[in-house]
Amino acid sequence: MTANEGVVRGQNAPLRKGRVIAIDGPAASGKSSTAQWVAQQLGFRHVDSGALYRALTAVRLRKPDDGTTWTDADVLGEGNRIRLVPHGMSFVPLVDGKRVDAELRGSDVTRFVSRVASMPEVRNWVNAQVRLTALDHDVVVDGRDIGTVVFPDADLKIFLVADSWERARRRLIQRLHRSPTDDEIADETERIVHRDSKDATQTVQAKDAVLIDTTRLTQEEQVERIVALARAVTQRPKGTSDVDQE
Ligand code: CDP
Fold first, then answer.
1. Region 174-186 average pLDDT
2. Up-side HSE of residue 96: CA atoms within 13 Å toward CB?
3. Alpha-carbon distance 123 to 72, whole Å?
4. Tell me: the pLDDT tens digits for 97-138?
5. Is 113 a pocket residue for ligand 1 (Cβ < 6 Å)?
6. Cα atoms in the 13 Å half-sphere on the side-chain side of 10
7. Is the distance from the beta carbon of residue 27 to the nearest atom of ligand 1 less than 6 Å?
8. How far apart are CA 149 and CA 48, in angstroms?
9. Distance from the CA of 53 to the center of ligand 1, in angstroms?
């Protein structure tokens, strides 16, 4: 079977029926907001793989220690407290049955998450959860290695990049709801570049990914480009795919 027949096999993946748009890229390159918007326009569901790494980090941080001795087993010991569930047009992680979005985006989690994400067993666990979402749903998945490791057979792969100053500026506007000062942007740029270096091993552009530099694009423009590319690959003539549409 091939991807064009609608039932495809990813690396170590169970059979999936859903179509997959993979959006990868470095920190604060706009992956999540873009992926969410693209998913809405296509009628797909959005999956933010980073939120699962953040959820694992958040539950581990609730235990009192300084994080220096964490191991894969230790972090995954808390894994059964996290569930990735459909909610509206997304899949969202619940911790002990609750949404904890503010905690997941907090600075403590952001500081520790790259360490957790560098653990091989943790990555296998997250990848397995993410693959399950595409068993029966069309999904737009954002992360670092979605097009290379999680869904190497994705229907479309996008790699989003932007200048680090611009990424810092956007992240601060999102967080502060106002225009940041140059000093604030400079500090945030330093943090983002530092996280990029810690995430470098897993942030890989697939050979068949479309590279989009968003530094000078509006969010509308980048969404439009991706939606157009996605429509070209997902709107196959009827009868050429056995994927069930929702
Ligand atoms: O802040 P940003 O939106 O860039 O990051 P995120 O998508 O929330 O991901 C948080 C962290 O999870 C990243 O810094 C990576 O360490 C890790 N991650 C990963 O290793 N692989 C993924 N597919 C997604 C996230």
1. 96
2. 6
3. 9
4. 999 999 999 999 999 999 999 999 999 999 999 999 999 999
5. yes
6. 26
7. yes
8. 15
9. 7
